[in-house]
Amino acid sequence: MASVPRPTRMSPPPSGARRTIATYASYQEAEQAVDLLSDERFPVNRVAIVGTGLRSVEQVVGRLTTGRAALTGAGQGALDRYELQVDEEVADEARRLLDRTPAGDPDAA
Q1: In this structure, are residues 21 and 95 in contact, taking their beta carbons and an 8 Å threshold?
Q2: Which of 3, 25, 84, 104 is buried most, with the most CB atoms less than 10 Å from its CB?
């Protein structure tokens, strides 16, 4: 029986248009927003955290463990802000879920 390859942090993003639905001052805040979406059973594999300043794109493939989150977050300090981008087809649903919380920049969408 052949094994199915697991997505990795370096997996290519899904094809198609993306929309920025929120901006955050820190990687941790963006990660918390992804956790909120995950808690609501939103398909987080359709979410990307895009760091700006020194541009960085991280395709989300699932919830991070605490250890992986710490290692990933350690290298993110040089970026100015973090955008949460989602596939266009699910952007309205993601934005609606995030609007339930005070996190995120309402002017981003």
Answers
A1: yes
A2: 84
Measured CA to CA, the distance from residue 12 to residue 15 in angstroms comes to 9
- Residues 91 and 94: their CA atoms lie apart, in Å, by 5
The Cα–Cα gap between 78 and 34 comes to 21
How is residue 87 annotated by DSSP?
E
d(C-alpha 13, C-alpha 87), whole Å:
10
Residue 46, helix vs strand vs coil: helix
Q: Are strands 56-59 and 47-52 parallel, antiparallel or unpaired?
A: antiparallel
Could you tell me the domains of the chain?
18-98 (3.30.70)
Instruction: Kindly give the confidence (pLDDT) of every residue in the chain, 109 residues in length, as a single tens digit, with 9 standing for 90 and above.
Output: 444 444 444 444 555 788 999 999 988 999 999 999 999 999 999 999 988 776 566 777 777 666 556 555 555 555 678 888 999 999 999 999 998 865 545 444 4
- What are the two backbone dihedrals, phi and then psi, of residue 87, each rounded to the nearest 5 degrees? -55, 140
